Sequence to fold (285 residues):
Amino acid sequence: MTGKEVRNMSDDCSHECSSCQENCSSREQGIPKEPFNAMSSVKKVIGIVSGKGGVGKSLVTALTASELKRKGYRVGIMDADVTGPSIPRMFGITDKASGDDSGIFPVDSRTGIRLMSVNLLLPDEMAPVIWRGPVISGVVKQFWTDVVWEDLDYLLIDMPPGTGDVPLTVFQSIPLDGILVVSSPQELVEMIVEKAAGMAELMKVPILGLVENMSYLVCPSCGERINLFGESKAEEVAKRHSIASSVRLPLVPEIAEKCDKGMIEDVKEEELAPIITMLEKLIEH
Fold:
């Protein structure tokens, strides 16, 4: 099956709007989507976004991918945070991506999650990526058009924070089926969601869920939930913006240790269950 035989919104889309007569969200935006590699087949493309850095967006991406893989789905992660890539380190990947005339081949994680990141292409993963916006955006496009993702049920795109060049490139160039917004409990969470919601609305991409990370800490002695960063606003904000699914993830020091050791796939995050269920229903339609 080739990329032209698979689409995210119906069964016969090539994502080439110039030759298509269908009235879909891509055409309504007036921006033709980039076709993916001819050897790729991707059923659902989900963006993971945040309005600011430091809220655990990459962690949520990795945990979501691991939970989906654990359920038997074929999953890939596109690390679109080009200047701050962290996905390979979380999965303990040190191998470099390879390629041939067909395109660039992702690196598989220990459990078979397909990964593509700029750190898998650079000789030194510690070297800073000092590129201008258009160059970074071009790299992200190539991660979609040139990478041989093969057969995937879900491709998760870990975006950089904010609403700048790269998020705009992803929204405009890649046929997203929806986004997950990652936030933290601080007062500015509402502003974060407002920005993400506003961008998604302009781009006609649905917000599928809200993940409030570092929402609370469970006391190891008594089991009490401690709201380190204030009371949760996840449900309130989700309701205000008509976001169907919202979850709260605890702050767990052991998870940070697993990330540092490249063992994120060993973490089972039960609190993500509503998000995983929602994504499973998405693929059924």
About this structure: The first strand starts at residue 41 and ends at 49. Residues 37 and 285 are 24 Å apart (CA to CA). The mean pLDDT is 84. Residues 189-203 form the longest helix (15 residues).
